[in-house]
Amino acid sequence: MSEPILKIENVHKWFPIRRTITQILKGEHVWVKAVDGITFNINQGEIFGLVGESGCGKTTTGKLLMKLLEPTDGKIIFRGKDVTHLEANKLKEYRRNVQMVFQDPYASMNPRFRAQDVIEEPLIIHQVGETRAEREKIVRRSLEEVRLIPPEGFMQRFPHMLSGGQRQRVATARTLVLSPSMIVADEPVSMIDLSTRAEILHMMKTVQRELGLTYLYITHDLSTA
């Protein structure tokens, strides 16, 4: 059996909260245990569902995997390497391999950016493509992969000019331009109309199958898991 692409080993994330005077005098520490000893493995090419009610630590777990938060304890292993704590240069490399689709696509985009700029931004940050023309070619390909066709019909639109489903497709295209091996999808359809959810889920499944991606799919809704 092949080594899992991702291993989460007894990971904790505790947040300190304000203490009372009595607790301070007694030297007591008070914590909110957002994630308290979670362990799981994800295999290459798998869609792994992390399902739970609101406030159970699902999104915190996703942020820990994306290195948006540092764990209090435990280990995160990616492709056999310990990525629990990474220096800046290693963090950039890791985030090129592991991308995230956020719950609210509108909030994750700069409202002053056109769709082309939103998708192209990761390419600029990671220095992919020597010219604007090369980057534009990658942007077009990514838009086609998420079924926004023809790409020219969407590249110049601002986020407010797109429907909720189209914005989530653009957000997904943004993750694909770097050719990641894994995507963390945090409640990707919870803010989309019911009529569009099935289309977005089908698109994500198709992209996963075509590109051989690994998904961590975070949701509170068992019907979409």
Detailed description of the structure:
It is a single chain. The chain has 225 residues and is α/β, with parallel strands linked by helices. It has one domain: P-loop containing nucleotide triphosphate hydrolases (Rossmann fold), CATH 3.40.50. 35% of the residues lie in helices and 23% in strands. The protein has 7 helices and 8 strands, in the order βαββαββαβαααβαβ. It has helices at 21-25, 58-65, 88-97, 115-125, 132-145, 164-176, 194-211, and strands spanning 6-16, 31-42, 47-51, 73-78, 81-82, 98-101, 182-186, 214-219. The chain has a 4-stranded antiparallel sheet with strand order 2-1-4-5, with helices on one face. β4 and β5 form a beta hairpin. α5 (132-145) crosses α6 and α6 (164-176) packs parallel to α7 (194-211). The longest helix is centred in the last third of the chain and has 18 residues, at 194-211. The radius of gyration is 19 Å and the shape is globular. The two termini are 25 Å apart. Keywords: ATP-binding, Nucleotide-binding, Transport. GO terms for molecular function: ATP binding; ATP hydrolysis activity. InterPro entries: AAA+_ATPase, ABC_transp_ATP-bind, ABC_transporter-like_ATP-bd, P-loop_NTPase. This is ABC transporter domain-containing protein. Residues 6-225 form the ABC transporter domain.
